[in-house]
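Supplementary Text 2. Reproducibility record for the structural model of the 131-residue chain.

All settings were left at their defaults, and a single model was retained for analysis rather than an ensemble. We include the record here because the model underlies the residue-level annotations in Supplementary Table 4.
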Amino acid sequence: MIKTFRLISLLMVLMVLMMTGCANVGKDVPASSVLAYWQAMAKKDSVALSSLTCADYEATALSTLDSFQAVETTLSDLECATVFQDGKTAEVTCQGSLEATYGAEVSSFDLSIYTYQMIQQSGDWLMCGEK
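Retained model, structure tokens:
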């Protein structure tokens, strides 16, 4: 009886570990981080934006955010995918745009013209530039 209980307990622990380990399988984490970066930019959320950027790129991200303060911003058809990844670095490309509206004037910023440079720090993928 005790052996059966131990065996069942061990199997349950192994199942939980397997499910936890597979949680990110199939999920494009660097691309999700770029998507979150642009969502924070559109929402003008400087705290979230800072948490999604590496230290070397944070000033650039916040400066870009400042340039959108006087306009209404929305994302249009944004989709991102990782095109390169090796351990602690990744490159992500996106399709879609950031729309900036001021009165009746709408400016569209094509987000597909850049390849976004990502680095992994403390388990998080952070925006660290574009090329």
